[in-house]
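Slide 14.
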Amino acid sequence: MNQDIEPANRHRGDRTVNDVNAADYDALLLPGGTVNPDRLRMNPQAMDFVRAFLEQQKPVAAICHGPWSLVETGMVNGRALTSFPSLRTDIRNAGGNWVDQQVQVDNGLVTSRNPSDLPAFCPSRLRSMPLSWR
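Slide 15: predicted structure.
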């Protein structure tokens, strides 16, 4: 999507969420924007996939509205995370601790607020941060 609502290029994936297993991957990046995360959280198989990463204590990163998927898994209780400000109430209602900062790292869960925070969120910057992935 362009500007979150205008259709853009389509890219065909080589697998669907029904064809994959979290055990075969090292980390997960959840997309931002409003449309993609909203559709993703409505897919039970996708939420099972996200939940499996969290249960296996693998790194999970989400930016902007991506944390909606984390809320949907029911696994943010007691975790500190950030997101686009409009998700603050959703995160708090799910038992999470919402913080307003560029990047929040909580034991392998890496979240960020919006595209302007990408320089702090991108892996080149995250490598220097003290992370406890497991």
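Speaker note: The beta strands are 28-30, 60-63, 80-81, 97-98, 103-106, 109-112.
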